Amino acid sequence: MTEIAFHFNAPDRLNHVCRLLRKAVGGGAKLVVTGPGEALAQLDAALWVLSGTDFVPHCNVHADESVLSRSPVVLAPSLEVLPFFDILINLGDSVPHGFDRFARLIEVVSLDADDRRLARGRWKYYAEAGFHLARHDLQKVTS
Question: Looking at residue 142, what is its pLDDT?
């Protein structure tokens, strides 16, 4: 069963996702980030300027098969046609269709009231479906 973790109170959602990706890729994980096209484009841009010394290899789901097979991070607006990956990060407002094919799902929730409200709906969905949920309050970690 998919392990689901909510990372709440992210002051900068994209920066937090970039750091998660850098850490996971450093540990050898393969990840997919899903969400609306605009959010994925912003993440793509943020990954290119993350650090002067670090690079997180990534590509769009529509890249050539040779690139897809070598990339540890794939940005995908939907999960319909993907090979197996370890971890899914959701930047969307709804529960991603097919999330249960992944070993882990991470939901990153900002301080925005609408984002928090939508995340509560996803939390309720996962809980009612019987998934175990882990909660990580990022304000407690950084304070």
Answer: 53
Domain at 3-142, CATH class: alpha beta
Give which of 25, 8, 3 is closest to 100, Cα–Cα: 3
pTM of the model: 0.93
Backbone angles phi, psi at 55, to 5 degrees: -135, 130
Closest C-alpha to 41, from 21, 66, 58, 16: 58
Instruction: Return the minimum-mean-pLDDT range out of 1-5, 13-17, 30-34, 53-57.
Output: 53-57
Judge contact between 141 and 7, C-beta under 8 A: no
**Which of 6, 27, 2 shows the shortest CA–CA distance to 103?**
2
Helices (H), 6-112: 13-26, 37-48, 65-70
Q: Which of 57, 70, 68, 64 is nearest to 24 (CA)?
A: 57
- Alpha-carbon distance of 65 to 97, in angstroms, equals 23
The domain locations on the chain are 3-142
Point out which residues pair with 133 in neighbouring strands. Answer: 4
What is the number of H-type helices and E-type strands within the chain?
5, 7
